[in-house]
Structures are given as C-alpha cells and as structure tokens.
Specification:
about 425 residues, alpha/beta, Urease, subunit C, domain 1, 2 domains, 8-stranded parallel beta sheet, about 20% strand, binds 3-[(4S)-2,5-dioxoimidazolidin-4-yl]propanoic acid, binds fe (iii) ion
Length: about 425
C-alpha cells in the first residue's frame, strides 16, 4: 500500500454519525440525517443532508447504507515495536511467580531488550507489522509507539526509526515516544542514576535533535525508576521541547501522577493506585488519565483505578491497549474497551470516548483527531451495527465494514 498523490473530495451520506463530539448532546455525540464532506484528508463540513446538493457535488458520493460512522480509533499507549515474546515467562507467572520477582531475576522487560537488540531494523519491522495490522483491522488510525526495549542510544534510535518507517509505509499515523527510562540496561546494573544521566545527557538530546520522538515517558515505579530520577528525565524533556507522560501508580503510589501534572504532562497512565490528591493534580493540569485494563487483567491485579473519582472530577479518561509482550500482549483495542467496561466499570460511551476524543488529547491532538467535526482529520470507521455499544460488546466477529484514512477508503487487504 502506498499513499496516492491525489486527494479527492468525498461526500458521505445516508449514515448515522457517532461524532464523539461533546458539542452534540445525544449519547456518543450522535447525529442523524447528517452528511460528512471530506477534502484533502480533512472533514470540511458536517451538515444536515437537506443542506447538501448531492446531484451537484463535485467529487465521490458514498452512500453509507445507513451504517454508523465513528472517528478512527486512537491507541494512545503502545509498546508496538519489540522482538520475541514472553509466553514462557507467562507460564511461570501462572504457576505463581510474581512479575516483580521475574523482573528482579533478569526476566521481564530486560529479556525483551535482549530479543529486540538481536534483530536488525528490518527484522524488527517485520516482527511489529502483524501487530500493527491487527490494530488497524479493528479501526486504529493513529497510535502511539514507544521505545524502551533498546535502552542504549543506538538501540533506542533503531526502535524509533522502525516506528517511523511503519507510519510511513502503512495508512496509519504513528506518534513516537521515547521511553528509555523503562528499565535498567545490563550495562548499567547497580547504577540507575548513571543510566538516568546517560538518558538525559546523551539519548534524549540525540532523539530530540533527530525529531524521532514527540514525547518522553518514564516507568516511575519501585521496579522502574524513582520519582527523583523521573523528575530529572522530565526536566531534560522539557528543556528539549518534548512533552512528558508517565507509567505511574501501576503497582504502588509514588505520587508519579502529580509529577507528570507538575510538568504539564499529556497523560498519566495505568494509575491503579492513584489517590484523591493525584486526581486533583491531573484535573488542575489538564492531564489525561489513561486506563490500561489489559495489563490489569493479564497481571491479575485487583486494585482498580479510581474511575469514580476521575469521573466526578471531570478528568478525561482514555483507554489503550498497552500492547507489550510482558503485561498486555493484546493487539485488540476492542478487547481493551470491553475490559474497560467489564473490569473498570466504564460505560461503552466512555470507552469509545476513551479511544477517540480523550486518546487524541493524550497525544496532544485534541484539536485535530478523535471527533467527527469540521477541521478534524478524515479518519472514519463504518460499522455494521445497530447501536454504537455493539462495537464494545462482543468479540470474535469484527463489525468494521470499512476503514478510511485521511479521506481514502482502505481495501480490507491493505487496512
Ligand atoms: N509497565 C508495563 O505494564 C509495561 N511497561 C511498563 O512500564 C511492561 C512492559 C514489559 O513487561 O515488557
Ligand atoms: Fe506501558
């Protein structure tokens, strides 16, 4: 699949729009009897069909056959690019060995670092491609892709370059994030501060200089990096003009979310152990709460994120796969939405907002992505359903009828 040069105009009519735009008060921001006009890959109008002169429309007219259309889905937290898998480690965990112990014994993240370093850039691309295609087949049109399995200057750059190439060759947008502070590489065993120094002085500036990342993430956790180390990385990110986000409050409460908020961060992710003060900090900073129920489920965690507090405070909640080989090996955003409802108590409408409007905000794209609205990118999904909740409700049969990226209809084999 290569992107064509032409950017035709199109009119999408006879559809039911789930705009996910809060300006429309109906559930899901639904609009009946409205058409979408697309030009140059953007939505240029959302108008009542009665206002559109179909016969004189200068471009392709698509009859959606009464289908629902939603915005393209946004998976705002993924570790898409990695080598190998950790099925053997999972077998151990099922026998009762805890994740923390596996990590301490050199398994966990560091074993994926070995497998990722062992692959050439081409082989890493090939390994990541089926996962990306699986996400796209369920409607993902934008996703975040983190480094963090390289943990050295050249290996982090290799991972980020593979992310970039995936976005350049497939009809999908990739938002790259530098996560070099994910785990301690073997070269720095026993010297976490030394590694953080290397991240701040060498890796982060080089990645910023080459434009390979939009944001910087840190695994702030007892098995990751301390709040003091996280602060150093965030300060370096800010100095290089990069936004910050954090893996925080996943396994314990280190007040990492407040730290993300202090730096005006895009999102605080996981947040099972987030407390009231953390919720208030997110609210004050306009930081998105990203819920990752796949990891909660796969690790058989019992502590749930404070959804009621987040809801009451009006903190936007995004929902994402956390696709990674250790704690969430699921390339399915529909599974994730279902888990967010069943395990965390979100409504299907909140889950859909979590993979559209709120996920867009978590990637700094609130003005241009995640809604069917004038000015937004024309990333559209057409669904064979009677009601939007069906997208979240069942698995095994994919009701996605058509995927449109930047106004272009994707044939199933390319999508
Ligand atoms: N938290 C997670 O759940 C993943 N990374 C992180 O910081 C785990 C990644 C892995 O185990 O490979
Ligand atoms: Fe993660």
């Amino acid at each position: 699949m290569t992107r064509q040069q032409q950017t035709p105009r199109s009119l999408w009519r006879n559809a039911r729009l789930a705009t996910l735009d809060p300006r429309h008060e109906a559930p899901y921001g639904a609009l009946e009897g409205h058409a979408l006009v697309v030009e140059d890959g953007r939505i240029v109008a959302v108008s009542p069909e009665s206002d559109v002169d179909v016969a004189r429309f200068d471009g392709e007219v698509v009859d959606a056959g009464g289908r629902w259309i939603t915005p393209g889905f946004i998976d705002c937290h993924t570790h898409l690019v990695y080598g190998g898998n950790r099925a053997a480690e999972w077998e151990k965990r099922l026998k009762g060995v805890p994740y923390q112990q596996i990590a301490a014994e050199g398994g966990g993240i560091v074993s994926t670092v070995r497998a990722t370093r062992a692959l050439s850039a081409g082989a890493l691309y090939d390994a990541s491609l089926p996962r990306l295609r699986a996400l796209m087949a369920e409607g993902v049109t934008t996703l975040e892709s983190k480094s963090g399995y390289g943990l050295s200057l050249t290996e982090e750059i290799k991972q980020l370059q593979v992310s970039r190439r995936l976005g350049e060759t497939l009809p999908v947008e990739i938002a790259p994030t530098l996560l070099s502070a994910h785990a301690l590489p073997p070269e720095f065993a026993g010297d976490a501060d030394g590694y953080i120094e290397h991240v701040c002085r060498d890796i982060l500036p080089a990645v910023a200089e080459q434009g390979l990342a939009e944001a910087v993430d840190v695994f702030c956790e007892s098995v990751g990096f301390s709040p003091a180390q996280t602060r150093r990385v965030f300060a370096a990110a800010a100095a290089h003009g990069l936004r910050v986000k954090g893996h925080v409050e996943q396994l314990s409460n280190l007040n990492g979310a407040a730290l993300v908020a202090e730096f005006g961060g895009l999102s605080a992710d996981h947040i099972e152990y987030l407390d009231e003060a953390g919720v208030a900090a997110l609210k004050a900073a306009g930081t998105v709460a990203v819920l990752l129920p796949g990891a909660f489920y796969f690790l058989r965690e019992t502590r749930k994120p404070p959804v009621e507090l987040l809801r009451a405070a009006g903190v936007p909640m995004a929902v994402s796969t956390d696709l990674n080989p250790g704690t969430s090996p699921f390339a399915s955003l529909r599974l994730t939405m279902n888990q967010a409802c069943v395990l965390f108590g979100l409504t299907p409408e909140e889950a859909l907002a979590g993979v559209t409007r709120h996920a867009a905000q978590a990637l700094g794209r609130a003005g241009s992505h995640g809604r069917l609205a004038e000015g937004c990118v024309a990333d559209l999904l057409l669904w064979d359903i009677q009601h939007p909740a069906e997208i979240v409700y069942g698995l095994g049969v994919n009701p996605l009828a058509e995927r449109v990226f930047r106004g272009r209809r994707q044939h199933k084999e390319n999508a």
